[in-house]
């Protein structure tokens, strides 16, 4: 680390500026970055996947924590700065250029995902990591930066305004918590909204439930969230009969159902 100049100096030297099109906002505060890297627990010797490292601020913190990092970056302007970090930590950083939505990371064995996600693709990446019938997943934990509003939707409880499909998908077979709020002033340039770090770990998967069916149930239920279930779910074959068999009042609205009730409906339809 002694060979690495301050991040602000690196950005100035390489003429980097945060790209609005790529959803970039840079973090310079090393103490804050170290706190983020500490959220998953000890990373000493652990494999970490980082999405959108930019000039490498969080990457440095992960490497300081002892991790072996695979970073996927689609902005070619950032690659020279990342190459300097790679040289300072020989054999511990692998940089892949490209779109994380399309590329395979090639990591074998369990790994942690830690990322200041680009705002424009963060939710899509997150739901992708939560999906699929195979469980537990290959990742051991997710430590992700989101807009505060999105983070609140992930950890929301039934009956609250933020509760919706994202909360059900995040919590039905994993544990999600809001680990840290990050003020907009911590970023360069400052975004218009506050941010937060979400930490997610896999939990046991309920038996006899199809993940795809649960996705279909939540898509239907929350697709018309202001309507009663008898209206919003009538297009899903068997859904109304499942509600009746489970004793769930079809006059309720989706935001009043617990995650366990959504799982029960998906199980009945699976």
CATH class of the largest domain: Alpha Beta
Low-confidence stretches: none
Helix content: 25-40%
Overall number of domains: 2
Quick tags:
Helicase, Ruva Protein, domain 3; 19% strand; two-stranded antiparallel sheet; Rossmann fold; 270 residues
Explain what this protein looks like in three dimensions.
The chain has 2 domains: 7-202, Vaccinia Virus protein VP39 (Rossmann fold, 3-Layer(aba) Sandwich); 211-269, rRNA adenine dimethylase, C-terminal domain (Helicase, Ruva Protein, domain 3, Orthogonal Bundle). It has 11 helices and 9 strands. The protein has helices spanning 7-13, 30-38, 57-64, 79-88, 122-130, 148-154, 165-171, 211-223, 229-232, 239-246, 259-269, and strands spanning 26-27, 47-51, 68-73, 93-97, 111-115, 139-147, 174-182, 187-188, 195-202. Strands 4-3-2-5-6-9-7 form a 7-stranded mixed beta sheet, with helices on both faces. A two-stranded antiparallel sheet has the order 1-8. The mean pLDDT is 92.
Layout of helices and strands, plus pairs?
Blueprint: H1 7-13, E1 26-27, H2 30-38, E2 47-51, H3 57-64, E3 68-73, H4 79-88, E4 93-97, E5 111-115, H5 122-130, E6 139-147, H6 148-154, H7 165-171, E7 174-182, E8 187-188, E9 195-202, H8 211-223, H9 229-232, H10 239-246, H11 259-269
Parallel strand pairs: 2-3, 2-5, 3-4, 5-6
Antiparallel strand pairs: 1-8, 6-9, 7-9
Helix pairs in contact: 2-3, 8-11, 10-11
